[in-house]
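User: Can you recover a sequence for this backbone? Please restate the input before giving your answer.

Assistant: Of course. Working from this structure:
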C-alpha cells in the first residue's frame, strides 16, 4: 500500500500571512535551506516557492496520518532539480507545481510506513 497526501495553497492568502506574521512565521515553518532557496527569487516567485513548500509539508503530514513539526520535514532537490521530502533521514517522492495564484503538492509515502 502507498500513502498519498495532497495540499493546495492560495498564493495570495499565503502572501498575506507572510506580510502579517513575517520572519517569525518563516522560521517556525521552514528551514534555513528552504528560506534561502525561496529568497534567491524575486516576488512573486519567492512567495510561490514558499507556498509550494508549505503545501508539500501539509501533504506529507496528511499522507503520514499524524502531525509532526513542519521544520522536521525538509523540501529538497536532487541533482536533476526534482523535489523530494526529507524526513528522519529518508527521502520521499514529491511533486510540486505553482502559478501566481495557486501552489499544489503531492507527497507519497511508499510502504512500509514509518
Amino acid at each position: 500500500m502507498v500513502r498519498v497526501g495532497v495540499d493546495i495553497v492560495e498564493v495570495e492568502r499565503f502572501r498575506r500571512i507572510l506580510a502579517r506574521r513575517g520572519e517569525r512565521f518563516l522560521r517556525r515553518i521552514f528551514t534555513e535551506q528552504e528560506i534561502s532557496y525561496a529568497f534567491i527569487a524575486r516576488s512573486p516567485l519567492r512567495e510561490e516557492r514558499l507556498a509550494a513548500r508549505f503545501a508539500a509539508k501539509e501533504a506529507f503530514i496528511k499522507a503520514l496520518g499524524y502531525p509532526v513539526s513542519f521544520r522536521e520535514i525538509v523540501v529538497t532537490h536532487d541533482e536533476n532539480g526534482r523535489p523530494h521530502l526529507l524526513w528522519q533521514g529518508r527521502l520521499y517522492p514529491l511533486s510540486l507545481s505553482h502559478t501566481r495564484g495557486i501552489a499544489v503538492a503531492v507527497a507519497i509515502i511508499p510502504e512500509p510506513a514509518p
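That completes the design. The chain has one domain: 2-110.
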